[in-house]
Amino acid sequence: MSFELRRAQRLGGASLLLLGAAATSALAQEPVQQPAQDKSSTEIPAVTVTAPSPIVRRVVPTRSPVHVARTGRSRGQQRAAEATPAAPATAATPQQGVLPIVTNQFATVTVVPNEEIRREGGGQLGDLLFSKPGITGSSFAPGASSRPIIRGLDVNRVGIVENGTNANGASDLGEDHFVPIDTLATNQVEVVRGPAALRYGSTSIGGVVSATNNRIPDALPTCGAQPFQSYGMPVKAPLATAGTSPCVTAETRSAFSSVDRGVESGVLLDTGAGNFAFHADVYGRNTTDYGIPSYPYLTDQTRTITNGRQPNSASRTDGASIGGSYFFQGGYIGASITQNDSLYHIPGIDGADHNTRIDAHQTKINVKGEYRPDAAAIDTIRFWAGTTDYRHNEIGLADPADPNTDGVRQTFTNKEQEIRTEVQLMPFNARFAEVTTALGFQVGHQELTAPSPDNPGTLFNGLWDPNNNTRVAAYAFNEFKFTDATRAQIAGRIEHVELHGTTPNFPPDYLPDGTPQVGIARNPSFTPKSGSIGLLQDLPGGMVGSITAQYVERAPKPAELFSRGAHDATATFDIGNPNLTIETAESVEVGLRKATGPFRFEATVYYTHFDNFIFRRLTGVMCDDSFASCGTPGAELNQAVYSQRNANFRGGEFQSQLDVGAFQGGIWGIENQFDVVRATFTDGTNVPRIPPLRIGGGVFWRDDNWLMRVNLLHAFAQNNVAVIAETPTPGYNLLKAEVSYKTKLDPRLFGAREMTAGIVGNNLLNENIRNSVSYTKDEVLMPGIGVRAFANFKF
């Protein structure tokens, strides 16, 4: 056992023992009495999620419990009751830092609420989710380009959506491409671990990450004091006939980080009156090269590193959005336009030598609406529509020794349109159960280009020729409520995908033989079909058990079919395979969860078998920028041919939080987490770039205003690596500590009505952390010891 590991364990154990002894002593000396407000109990905030299922059950406080038999109450009377909530009972304000557990969904869902996003920060979703059980980030350019990885599955198998529509950048086309969703403008993140393809398409066969914000308002703003934790999900708007007065709310979000001298700030504005609501936000972030604990390059010890910083890791990001909604009797319709811009550098030896950076721009227009007709059969109609124009230039030196050769080396463009409509039917009595059905329809079109100015007109110009694809799908979800304690779900989806592109005619052994190559038009089409069945059962002690089985098919993506050139991000010469067939996943998952009481936890085990798993197969041949160079001495890029093999993924996740008891007017407790995934091909060899086994724990103390937490996450060494071009990754200890304070303010004195501020220390042991899933892990260290100070004000 290393000295660093022993030191971390001793520090963590000593902290736990000291805090436990102090709490026990305080409890023993405290006189027994009945306080007006029981500080030893936790007010559990409500967790509302929207990503896993199109079936949304509204909770109406004034109504009696739902019975299977429908009453004769009219739909208008029902809405009137929903618009008039009962007088709320006096209750303690939910405390921050409570582990959110979702128990009413058939899928496994991780929720990152608004207050946690504000504390943790992170420029990319992969940074924010890096330590969550079953989830990590790709960390190609930490802080600037990091895409979420779920249970070892990435890019082509993990969907990313914002407010119900695809993020539509280019992060699934290259590991060095950023995700155009910024945490500064995000109110909640939901991660569906496991197949989410039934609702979002076959490209989400591994899961989906859903970010939400208020850019298209789905509620009129309220200027009264709100609870601190709303998880970014405001109460639905009242009826259009309800009287509302003009209202304006604002929020500022700011932070400074020491490790990269980063400064970030955002302003959000919401206003509305009558039938209209409007939102606007603007944000920006600027960082320099971040600090690292030691020399980063394992493969080259001759380079000079200045000021203890990762070379070529600076970034600058900014964006803005404006949107509005019109509310009418029974619904609303709204639209927004968003601009995302990012200029970030690519760390690593090649990136530093060539001063490589990516200048990315995305313009996105979204439309969203909901209507609840006064009809006997239809409960709700929802729709989403979006169009995106994305473009980025990969800029760098053609010759590292000549600064005059700086220029655009490649350009990626993505123009994409999407429409999704869902109809949720009213529950009906099927005698054996109350049945709720939701039907959905989705259509999308995408056009991709990736030209390079270095060799225009050649067969291997850029990563692929211009290509396009069209997707049409229909899906259905059925939920069966047998009793209040037993529920089931059966869902299915069918989609049709047509792709059009060109690829050269490669020799069977993928070695140049002197035969002239020409581009051949390829027009494959696929019809993936998917289905699932799940059961939820309430158990004694407030626990909920679940079991789900899914059969999911995925159509190959354009990069897997049409690639035929150098891919600097992965240091590969990619060769697409137009003969790829549908990838199939058969998955079983069992879960046990508890969301209430002093002990809250979530445990999940899963097994997934893939038929025709698509992956980059490294042939052992080295190439340069053209296929003719493959096999020549001195070439630097691994030849990678998209291929298919059967594979098995199995693993489990656990996280828990225990409120031990009262201490100094608040609650202290312990928390822990564990996750593991093992992925092998059917011949026993390893699937490349899989996250390691991780285990962690910590202690916390909180009250209505303060949250203090210390947490240590240990990642074991990852020695289960692919045979070619993957090296083992050492383990690490990630120690974090945070202190945050929230309070209400008097607007007459301070201007703001609420404040949350705090300090978060990251990698406090200053460990060398390398991410086993990153293509650049042998050249790029994760940031070293640093402190992040943040302050948020609501007006």
From TrEMBL:
Q: In what residue span(s) does the TonB-dependent receptor-like beta-barrel domain sit?
A: 302-764
Where does the record place Low complexity bias? 80-94
Q: Per its UniProt record, what InterPro entries does this chain match?
A: Beta-barrel_TonB (IPR000531), Beta-barrel_TonB_sf (IPR036942), Plug_dom (IPR012910), Plug_dom_sf (IPR037066), TonB-dep_rcpt-like (IPR039426)
TonB-dependent receptor plug domain mapped to chain residues: 107-208
What membrane topology is given?
A: Multi-pass membrane protein
Any coiled-coil ranges, and where?
Answer: none
Similarity field:
Belongs to the TonB-dependent receptor family.
The name under which this protein is listed is TonB-dependent receptor
Look up and give the organism this protein is from: Bradyrhizobium barranii
Its organism's taxonomic lineage begins at: Bacteria, Pseudomonadati, Pseudomonadota, Alphaproteobacteria, Hyphomicrobiales
